[in-house]
# Entry
Amino acid sequence: MELYNLPVHELHRLLVERQVSAGELTATFLERIAAVEPAVKAYLTLTREQALAGAGAVDDTTGRGEILAPLAGIPAALKDNLCTRGTRTTCASRILEHYLPPYTATVVERLEQAGMVSLGKTNMDEFAMGSSTENSGFGPTRNPWDPERVPGGSSGGSAAAVAAGEAAYALGSDTGGSIRQPAAFCGVVGLKPTYGLVSRYGLVAFASSLDQIGPLTREVRDCALVLQAIAGHDLRDSTSAHVAVPDYTAALTGEIKGMRLGVPREYFPAGMDPEVKTAVRRAVDKLEELGAILEEVSLPHTEYALPAYYLVAPAEASSNLARYDGVAYGHRAGGADNIIDMYCRTRQEGFGPEVKRRIMLGTYALSAGYHDAYYLKALKVRTLIRRDFEQVFAAYDALVTPTTPTVAFKLGEKVGDPLAMYLSDLFTIPVNMAGLPALSLPCGFSQGLPVGLQVIGRPFAEATVLQIAYAFEQATDYHLARPDLGVRGEK
Ligand code: GLN
# Structure
């Protein structure tokens, strides 16, 4: 397999054995980006010079005989809602097109300390609102498995970059599915950690009670390595949890004998793609073959998660996005007569249609007279959803479900129908509402497109989630498949 198609842990071995230098590795990824980026469009900003300089620094340390950390010298990509000091951070929005953050997100800082080589910032739905990257203010990303199809979203650029060999791993953010749904659509591994495990400092806020940052990788072991580097308490994020971070790779035993796994019946509704259903049912059989005990369970409030999310998330978004007023951040409209006119024009010009829709929904849900009927009611529903999970987790170690109801859809197919677009997060949203960790990994194909299996864990049980995912991955070979982008010398 080509270098750019290898998982992080194998690239690390090659670096340690001096079969390749970080400089050569970075050059390989930059060449790969040059070859496939015109077809995929995963990146909004490339940081070539910075990447080469970072790789040079890592090669200097190996030259001195120092031991390489697991991520040192490995080229990675960052979703463009993670603040990077001096490198523009757009959130794929016109309003932040030229925004240069004065500080760096904690997760990025931690990866830099771990020796990351940063290749650039990836495309996304504007302010992470969407499921296809079609809401990007700078054009959509394409699915490496089929350029006519979406890569998912909102971390579509990050997922596509990893799937296309344009980065060895990437960071994304997940408010209602934005790591797991694109991971499923692009055939990679994506983990949304427990709310509070990973610092949100420097993540441009969408819905602060739901947002989490997490890895997108080719293999489960890589996911454990990246999580290890970014997890843990951060003084700069008051919602970050005071929990000990375990050794995640220690959980990768391949053993799941006797584990009790629940399969929620609400996650196989009538309208879903039958081939996705079949692939997930087969994955369930595989887990049983590996010695786990699988039983059907029920999460009765599942159907209310999506409507409640579309009150809570827009409410928080309408508040978070109030700061883009043309004064402190980003774009400012010209030609205004007074300050109110300036605010209006700036927001009119700077935000795309989905962001405006969310601001209006959220403002309405929070407004006097409607607050109790909508926002407060949604918070109560959120509690019921969390309780459903708590009850099931009293008897089960984890849950397995499909990540999405369908495989990647065609570009343009759902842009005119927001509800259809929202429904692609049917199985991922309840997890955010309950603050739980969940991972998507490849479990099959339908019409040549990847299908994702979702493993949901108890709060802070990332190790268990990784353990289950790893056992499944090692017993199957879906993670070894790579898309054919029709470039010479591929595979
Ligand atoms: N697709 C969902 C939304 O549009 C979730 C997005 C996300 O997780 N950032 O809100």
In short: The domain at 3-265+393-480 is CATH 3.90.1300.10 (Amidase signature (AS) enzymes).
